[in-house]
Amino acid sequence: QRSSGSIPVSETATHPLDDEAITNEHTAKMSMARIAALEYYQAGKYELAERKFKEAVEESILGFESKDPHVASAKVGGHVLKYWRE
What we know:
Radius of gyration: 14 Å
Order of helices and strands: HHH
Largest sheet: none
Shape: elongated
Distance between the termini: 42 Å
Mean pLDDT: 75
Helix content: 55-70%
Number of helices: 3
Oligomer: single chain
Low-confidence stretches: none
């Protein structure tokens, strides 16, 4: 049993190293959008990258509770892109 510490986490959230991670159709769509976003970013196609990062966030919200680490992870990608573009 893992301790969540002082950070509130959803009841259904799984640790990335757990063997039985939660997965659903939105997990796959989120992952594909993040991969595409990173590829677009590396190619200098920032507008396309931003669209794909937003798509990843939307899929994470559809597939997981708001406090699930998947949602936070998806949101980080878009924020990093904005930071590096400025």
